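WP5 quarterly update. Target: HTH deoR-type domain-containing protein. Source organism: Caballeronia sordidicola. Length: 251 aa.
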Amino acid sequence: MLTSQRKKAILDALARDGQVLAKQLSETFDVSEDTVRRDLRELAGEGLLQRVHGGALPASSAVAPFAERRQIESSAKRAIAGAAAAMIGKGQVVIIDGGTTSAELIRQIPRDLQATVVTHSPSVAVGLIDHPLIEVLVIGGRLFKHSIVTVGAAAIEAMSHIQADIYFMGVTGVHPTAGLSTGDYEEAYVKRALAARAAETVVLASSDKINAASQFVIGGLALAQTIIVEMATDPALTKPLEKSGVTIVRA
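Structure tokens (predicted):
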């Protein structure tokens, strides 16, 4: 079998099974595990999969810079944001993550809602200026320009003084075995710290993030209680998530 044929078969198996194991692939192709690992390295270098110990997972495609992602109009993203906004109750303390879906979420919060929003996203904070009854608490720290959020030790320290009702988390990967992941090391720490400060964590996940993984793990699926997905998401992708105990909301 040619290298190109092996690589195509690996990607087909990833799409079908959600993961591949190097040992099984070497047996299937009758090649050494070193050969399989080289194939996986090259495919990972092209951004077509995410290598993990012993094999690989589908790579998340939701890793473009914020400005580029913001230009992508998505009815699914608006629906997910609308379902999230409807979960916010009067008087609640709500943590809102950075990201393009969060930017849509704040646009759908009613102007007459009274609540407190905690965020490490300057964009989210500014977007709530015209909501007169929402108090906005901004978490400081080093600005991570890719996602326009603050990260670092100062941000995590500030979070330790918060007790929130709900946290709307943005991710780049949701996978039944790899859990929740993102593309930046420090951002993963911040998201994990925010989840620890909320009674409920709700993950906002468009279809390109389901059954995919990024380089840095935020935590297992148990970190979240609810995942909001778009209505058209294949039930075969969400069923393994539901089996883990997470509630799936279709928007």
